[in-house]
């Protein structure tokens, strides 16, 4: 009998260890008071999922999810009340007097593969002061559900070529190049908000060896900027690839649609396309001649499976 009880206890212990749970609360009611402390407690290179539950609050801290912290799942109760924020910006100087530069300004750095966030706001609160990242995503298979990304210039950096990222039902705002980088990223049913003072939504830098850059599927593009003021994208690197599929484009989108970054050579290498978009900002007859309107057959290449190279980002374990 004692042996049976011991075995049951061991099995229960194993099951509990299969998925670690950590709670963060500023009032001390959780395991930790800061998100960074909770991340530091995650076992390195664990194949098991670690869930970090973040209670409502504004957490002003610069957060780094190291490469060794894989399969981490950060969960907030509500993105509007669970806010991770910091206020670095590119021209700000560090202790040595050196300007931070764009890549060192992020409020949240996600390096660990298999990272997931739900119901969280990622914010750079420095204001309209130049490049200032809300999040730096350098992780393959990174997923974001019901999250908000708040900033001005360079809100989201999708940093690693070949990495796959998925954003579902997220709110993303900014002014200039506020979604940029070389990774492959699928944005599904997201709200893209163009703030006053900017001109470009995307600045992809897709390598020529990578088939998919940014794909926006069923998204809503709107904003507070004037009518006919925002380009859908400009190529940070020559082979940028961006496609908007079945999106609603408000009048904030420029009739021309796309910009060559004042480099005519980019018109021969960048791939910018649309398929069955709607709204006053969708003016296919006025788009730049070097952009594309996909045919039905061409659009078949833009399935979730193909874009993400077989990775299924569905949130199966809530």
UniProtKB/TrEMBL annotation:
Domain Pectinesterase catalytic: 22-310
Record-annotated active site: 177
One GO BP annotation of this record: cell wall modification
Substrates-to-products reaction catalysed: [(1->4)-alpha-D-galacturonosyl methyl ester](n) + n H2O = [(1->4)-alpha-D-galacturonosyl](n) + n methanol + n H(+)
Pathway(s) where this gene product acts: Glycan metabolism; pectin degradation; 2-dehydro-3-deoxy-D-gluconate from pectin: step 1/5
Keywords assigned by UniProt, alphabetized: Aspartyl esterase, Hydrolase, Signal
First and last residue of the signal peptide: 1-18
GO molecular function: pectinesterase activity
Protein origin, superkingdom: Bacteria
Enzyme Commission (EC) number: 3.1.1.11
Keyword Oxidoreductase recorded: no
GO cellular component, one term: cell outer membrane
Top EC class, one word: hydrolase
SUPFAM superfamilies according to UniProt: Pectin lyase-like (SSF51126)
Matching PROSITE patterns: PECTINESTERASE_1, PECTINESTERASE_2
Family statement drawn from the similarity comment of this UniProt entry: Belongs to the pectinesterase family.
Name of the protein this chain belongs to: Pectinesterase
């Amino acid at each position: 009998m004692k042996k049976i009880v011991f075995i049951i206890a061991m099995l229960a212990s194993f099951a509990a260890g299969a998925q670690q749970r950590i709670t963060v609360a500023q009032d001390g009611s959780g395991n930790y008071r800061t998100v960074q402390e909770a991340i530091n407690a995650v076992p390195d290179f664990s194949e098991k999922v670690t869930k970090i539950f973040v209670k409502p609050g504004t957490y002003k801290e610069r957060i780094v999810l190291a490469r060794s912290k894989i399969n981490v799942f950060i969960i907030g109760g509500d993105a509007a009340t669970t806010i991770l924020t910091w206020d670095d910006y590119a021209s700000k100087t560090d202790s040595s007097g050196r300007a931070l530069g764009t890549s060192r300004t992020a409020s949240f750095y996600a390096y660990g593969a298999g990272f997931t966030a739900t119901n969280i706001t990622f914010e750079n609160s420095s204001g309209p002061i130049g490049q200032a990242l809300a999040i730096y995503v350098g992780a393959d298979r990174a997923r974001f559900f019901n999250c908000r990304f708040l900033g001005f210039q360079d809100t989201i950096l999708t940093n690693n070529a070949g990495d796959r990222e998925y954003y579902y039902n997220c709110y993303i705002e900014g002014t200039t190049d506020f979604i940029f980088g070389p990774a492959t990223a699928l944005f599904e049913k997201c709200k893209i908000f163009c703030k006053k003072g900017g001109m470009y939504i995307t600045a992809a830098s897709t390598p020529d060896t990578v088939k998919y850059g940014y794909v926006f599927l069923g998204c809503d593009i709107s904003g507070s900027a004037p009518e006919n003021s925002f380009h859908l994208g400009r190529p940070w690197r020559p082979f940028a690839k961006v496609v908007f599929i079945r999106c609603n484009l408000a009048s904030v989108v420029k009739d021309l649609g796309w910009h060559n970054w004042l480099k005519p050579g980019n018109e021969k290498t960048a791939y910018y396309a649309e398929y069955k978009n709607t709204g006053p900002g969708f003016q296919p007859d006025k788009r730049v001649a070097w952009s594309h309107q996909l045919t039905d057959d061409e659009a078949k290449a833009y399935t979730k499976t193909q874009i993400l190279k077989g990775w299924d980002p569905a949130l199966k374990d809530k």
